[in-house]
Every structure is written in C-alpha cells, then in structure tokens.
Specification:
Number of domains of chain B: 2
Bound molecules: flavin-adenine dinucleotide, adenosine monophosphate
CATH class of the largest domain in chain B: Alpha Beta
Largest sheet of chain A: 9 strands, mixed
Helix content of chain A: 25-40%
Strand content of chain B: 25-35%
Strand order of the largest sheet of chain B: 7-11-6-1-4-5-12
Distance between the termini of chain B: 72 Å
Number of domains of chain A: 1
CATH class of chain A: Alpha Beta
Mean pLDDT of chain B: 93
Number of strands of chain B: 18
Number of helices of chain B: 8
CATH superfamily of the largest domain in chain B: HUPs
Structural class of chain B: alpha/beta
Oligomer: heterodimer
Strand order of the largest sheet of chain A: 11-10-9-12-8-1-6-7-13
Number of strands of chain A: 15
Number of helices of chain A: 7
CATH superfamily of chain A: HUPs
Radius of gyration of chain B: 22 Å
Order of helices and strands of chain A: EEEEEHEHEHEHEEEEHEHEEH
Low-confidence stretches of chain B: none
Distance between the termini of chain A: 62 Å
Low-confidence stretches of chain A: none
Order of helices and strands of chain B: EEEHEHEHEHEEEEEEEEHEHEHEEH
CATH architecture of the largest domain in chain B: 3-Layer(aba) Sandwich
Strand content of chain A: 25-35%
Mean pLDDT of chain A: 93
Largest interface: A-B, 77 and 92 residues
CATH architecture of chain A: 3-Layer(aba) Sandwich
Shape of chain B: elongated
Shape of chain A: globular
C-alpha cells in the first residue's frame, strides 16, 4: 500500500469580490467576512492522489493547518475520497509565514508515519508564495519537484514527472518518498458527489494541537516565523484620467485617435 | 578590516550559457544594496560554462562570481545546486540573497531558505534598506504596499520577477574575481533531470511588447475573451490577463500580468474588463499611455489610467477593432 498526504489550505473564496483592504487612516487591515473554501490548486493535488488510489492500493490523508473553520475543507476532501482528515488548529499556529507553516505541516507528516508521496498545490490563492511545498520537503529531508504538470511514470519507487518551465518542461526522475507541487494542467478535479458527502459524515477528522505535535511554541505561528510585516502603506496613482464620452462609435474613434497619438499604433 | 555586513548575493541563472535578463537586473540592484551596506555584490552561477560566459555579470555590477561548472550541470540539477549554495552560504555568510522569480528560482529559493533556516519573501516589487540597514521587501497587497522584513535571521532572501528592476547599463570595463566552486560530479540518485525541453513561443513576448492588451474577468466567457485576443491581434500587441482569466482557463498562467506573474512596461497598455487591483497593476511598470475599458464608471481602474471608456467591453471591443482595421487599411492604401 502507498501512503499519500495531500496538504490542503482553506482560503477566502477567491470568487467573492469583497477584498481585505488597508484602512487608509489606521493603516491596519480591514477584514470582512468571506467564507473559506478549498484552495483551487489543492483540488488538483487531491485529484492527483485520488487518481493514484484508483490505480493502486493507496491511503490518502488530507492535512490542513488553519482555524477551526477550516474543518469544512477537510470534510470536503473526505467527501472527495480521502481516507483520513487531520486539522492542525491551535492559537499557537496563528500568524505563521511560509517557513513556520511548512515546519508545522512537516512535523505533522512525520507524526503520521512513513509517507510515500506528499502532494501540495503549486500555490495558495491568498498567500501565494509557492514556498510551502518545497520547504516541507526540506524539513522532511525529501526530494521535491515543483510545478508538476504530468505524472509520466508511477510504478515502483522511481517516478518520472514532467514539471513546467517557462515555455517548456523538464522531465525529472524521482526516488520516493518525495514531495510534489502540482499545477492546474496536471488534471481536472472531480466534482463532489452526494454519496461521497454522506460517507464523509461518518469519517473522523482528527484535530492536533501544539502538544500533539510536541513542538515548542517558539517554533510555530508568528513566533516561529522569520519574516514579519513591518509596515503597511497606501499607494496613490499619479495619473489623471480623461473619460471619453459620446456614442459607442464616437468613443471608439476618440480612443483610436489617442492610441495613434501615443505613436505606437 | 572585515565588513560589518556579509556580501549581497544573486543566484544567477543561465540558459544555453547565456545569463538570463532577470539575473542581470538583480545584479544591478545587488550592487546598489551592497554600496548601501558597504559590502560586495557577488553572484553564484552554475552550468557547463566557460569563464567568458560570466562577463555580463561583472558588467552588471558583480564584484566576484562563484562559478560551478561541469558537464553534469548542463541542466538545472536542484539537489546539486542546493547543496552547493548552502555550503557556500554557510562559509561566506551573505547578508542578502536574491533570486529571479523564474521556475528555477521559485523552486531553489525555498529549498535554500529552509536549509539556512531563514525567511524568504515572494513577489517583491521593491527592495530598499531601512534606517537600520535591514532589507525592506515591498509587496503590493490589499490596495497598498506591505513591507516585509526578516529582522533576525540571515541571510535575508527574496525572489523577484523579471522587469521589477531595470537592466543596469553594462559597464564592459568592469571585471572581477572568478572563484571556482567544486560541485559534485554525480547527480543525486534521488532526483535528476532527464531532459529539458524549450518550446519557442510564437506569440509576442509580453516583456518587450510596445503594446500590451490585458483582459480581465469582465470578458465574461470564452467568446468575450476571444474578442479581447482579437483586439490584441489587430494592434499587433502582446496579450496579457488577470488571475481570474487564468482560473477560468481562458488563457495560460504565463500570460498573467502582475505581482505573481509577468512584469510589462509597454508604450501603450489597454486594460479591458479588469478592476485595476493592485496585484495586477504593479505588473505594469512605467507604461507611457494607459487605457481602461470597463462598464463600471466607479471601477478603481479609472484612477490609474490616462484614458477611460465606460462601456460593456463585449459591445465596445468589436467596434474598436473595426475602427482600428479601417484605420490600418487607410494607412496602407494612401
Ligand atoms: C497573493 C495574491 C497575488 C495575486 N497576484 C496576481 C497577479 O499577479 N496578477 C493578477 O492579475 N491578479 C493577481 N491576484 C488577484 C488580484 O487580487 C485580483 O483578484 C485580480 O487581479 C482581479 O482580476 P480582474 O480585474 O480581472 O477581476 P475583477 O476584480 O473581478 O474585475 C472585473 C472587472 O470587470 C468589469 N466588468 C465586468 N463585466 C464587464 C463588461 N461586460 N465590460 C466591461 N467591464 C466589465 C467589472 O466592472 C470589474 O471592474 C493576486 C491575488 C493575491 C491574493
Ligand atoms: N495552512 C496550510 N495547510 C495545509 N497546506 C498548506 C497550508 N498552506 C500552504 N499549504 C500547501 O502549500 C501549497 C502552496 O502554498 P503557498 O506556499 O502559500 O503558495 C498549497 O497549495 C497547499 O498545498
């Protein structure tokens, strides 16, 4: 049997227009309520694991670090077909940068036991650093391939994967256990089905707090983060807009004129 | 006398033995930061290389170049690179390490940072030294700028996209010391690159395009998107997009402009059906003329451009294309 871990993150719904903004006066973040959803690229990571489970005897753990509200996305992964869900949730984990996030996730993966493959999304839609996957690999001492767009060979302990490059790809040979971060091109995530949702209700989501991981409080969350936000500033535009008016035809004619005046059309 | 500050490093990148543009831009910036810290600017370069391949790095501002060269390194080999970089960093204790936000840089940066147990910042659009000589790494977010610092751990590390910093004026008279680096002859049995394939893109590259047409979520559907692509075609412009367009699958990730995508500096930028979100707009650096087409007169995009058209892009763009084509035809015939 192969053991797969998929790292999944709960992110504010990217479809919802309501954005977090800097308050121009207090220079602090004005938050607003946006529901948490499964990070889009983590659906591709889940799908990769599910497709392997269709081919091999595999066990899938969906692992997430986040607030208690993140339980919903772990439940969603169970409904998609994960066998086990683990939510790392503790006040001490809050405010983690990519380094502390990866450290915490890696510690949990080590606790889960021998793992063959860890799948991550290439990037999260809110943090979007792309660092968490490779940093997990470093903390676990495993090889990593980022931006995997195709799993070419997955029989035996040596896999071949295609990873995307600017205008091309590289073909990599990897010895398992390994970490992969996946792109949108890898697969098309399946939709949730009702029977899955019903089954997921019976599956257990394990919650681990800091004591379960046995790590010092200085190593996780804000305290364990080498980087901090030192300042928030608002920016102002230096341009003064001229709104073109008239009928559609007139506006198009005026715009063309402005474009021609710019000297490049 | 020993410098108070360690060197400023750039992990340079080459393709087919040519140093990539972003590495030279970073070298220029590294030289400035190094001057501020009264230290040296240095580059690390790996590949199957000869000494003359290194010259552009000196011309761009490097005082020293660590060169790891052997035939095994014709391709990027992550495990060898990480090992070599970490070993050198432990020996020379750089104050700052900069990498290009390329496929290679975005993989290497976190691997090196985690091994050196230090912080790393993504998508910086500016790097300055603060009053305590700490590197302030500025990132656009939430309609403003976030400054991120790594106050305690060293090195301070950041990945920066092509086009954020200008290409330094090459000074061909500058030269410096090349320090050969011993790199393992054998690739790692755990991970190796079997093949690298580059496809030559047939579209106009965004970075060097004189005109950039960028489309956003306002395109509505694949048909709406195609119209925007047609507009780019008609203008012989490069076609870019915002993140929702990539999410919808209308355009590839490589055409996304902004903080986590490409940086462009065209003569003329036309934003169609996009809201002017910071994370996109920071990708347009130093455009001469900027235009927005949006059906919402209150859209923040209109605060950031020179000319605005308030209209439904799905109605307006076809009319505009017709006008452009008519104009071009006249130009040719008369
Ligand atoms: C960490 C992070 C990094 C990011 N990096 C990037 C990045 O690099 N690049 C990027 O682009 N985004 C990035 N984003 C996303 C960014 O925040 C915005 O969500 C995105 O740029 C918005 O795209 P948009 O303007 O196309 O969509 P929206 O904000 O949804 O705007 C659509 C606009 O279209 C207009 N519209 C609708 N219908 C029509 C019509 N028929 N005709 C004309 N106009 C119409 C609307 O009025 C609206 O203004 C990032 C986000 C995060 C959190
Ligand atoms: N809090 C988290 N919990 C679980 N997985 C995460 C978390 N943060 C990041 N990841 C994983 O790391 C990937 C990259 O995230 P990022 O580095 O934030 O762009 C995501 O797609 C997830 O797979």
């Amino acid at each position: 049997m192969i053991n797969l871990v998929v790292c999944v993150k709960a992110v504010p719904d990217p479809q919802q227009a309501c954005n977090i903004r800097i308050d121009p006066v207090t220079k602090t973040l004005m938050r607003c309520e946006v529901p948490l959803v499964l990070n889009p690229l983590d659906k591709n990571a889940m799908e990769a694991a599910l497709e392997l489970k269709e081919q091999f005897d595999a066990h899938i753990t969906a692992l997430s670090m986040g607030p208690l509200d993140a339980e919903g996305i772990v439940r969603e992964c169970l409904a998609l077909g994960a066998d086990q869900g683990i939510l790392l949730s503790d006040r001490a984990f809050a405010g983690a940068d990519a380094y502390a996030t990866a450290y915490t996730l890696a510690t949990a993966i080590a606790k889960i036991g021998p793992v063959d493959v860890v799948f991550c999304g290439m990037a999260s839609s809110d943090g979007s650093t792309e660092w968490v996957g490779p940093e997990i690999a470093m903390f676990l001492g495993l090889p990593v391939v980022t931006m995997v767009e195709e799993i070419v060979e997955c029989r035996g302990p040596q896999w071949k994967v295609k990873a995307s490059l600017e205008h091309g790809y590289r073909l990599m040979q990897v010895q398992l256990p390994a970490v992969f971060t996946v792109t949108r091109e890898l697969n098309t995530p399946r939709a949730l089905v009702f029977s899955g949702i019903i089954k997921a209700r019976k599956k257990l989501i394990v919650r681990w707090e800091i004591d379960d991981l046995g790590v010092p409080a200085e190593a996780v969350g804000l305290k364990g983060s080498p980087t901090i936000v030192s300042k928030l500033t608002t920016t102002e535009s230096k341009r003064e807009v001229e709104i073109l008016t008239g009928t559609r035809e007139e506006k198009a004619a005026q715009l063309l004129r402005k474009m021609v005046d710019s000297g490049v059309v | 006398m020993k410098n108070v500050y360690g060197p400023v490093w750039v992990i340079a990148e080459q393709r087919d033995c040519r140093i990539r543009t972003v590495s030279l831009q970073l070298m220029g910036q590294a030289q400035k930061l190094a001057a501020g810290l009264n230290t040296t600017a240095e580059a690390l370069l790996f590949g199957n290389l000869m000494e003359h391949h290194v010259r552009p790095l000196f011309a761009a501002g490097a005082d020293r170049v660590f060169l790891g060269s052997n035939p095994q390194l014709a391709f990027y080999e992550p495990e060898i690179y990480v090992q070599a970089i970490v070993r050198l960093a432990q020996e020379h204790e750089p104050e700052i390490i900069l990498l290009g936000s390329t496929a290679m840089g975005r993989e290497l940066a976190p691997l090196v940072a985690a091994r050196l147990q230090t912080g790393l910042t993504a998508h910086c659009t500016d790097l300055v030294l603060d009053e305590n000589n700490i590197l302030e790494q500025r990132i656009p977010a939430y309609g403003g700028l976030l400054s991120i610092i790594c106050p305690q751990k060293r090195p301070q590390m950041a990945a920066i996209a092509n086009g954020v910093f200008p290409m330094p004026e090459p000074d061909q008279d500058r030269s410096g010391e090349i320090i050969p680096v011993a790199v393992p002859e054998d690739v790692s049995p755990r991970l190796q690159t079997l093949e690298v394939v580059h496809q030559i893109p047939d579209e106009i590259p965004l970075e060097s395009a004189a005109i950039v047409v960028a489309g956003g979520a306002g395109a509505g559907d694949p048909d709406g998107w195609r119209q925007i692509a047609d507009l780019a075609d008609a203008l012989n412009a490069a076609l870019g997009c915002t993140r929702p367009v990539v999410d919808e699958g209308w355009a590839p990730l490589e055409s996304m402009i902004g903080q986590s995508g490409r940086m462009v500096s065209p003569e003329l930028y036309i934003g169609v059906g996009l809201s002017g979100e910071q994370q996109h707009m920071v990708g347009i650096t130093g455009a001469k003329v900027m235009v927005a087409i949006n059906n919402d007169a209150k859209s923040p995009v209109f605060d950031q451009v020179d000319y605005g058209v308030v209209d439904d892009c799905r109605e307006f763009v076809p009319v505009l294309i017709e006008k452009i084509k008519a104009y071009q035809k006249n130009q040719v015939t008369c």
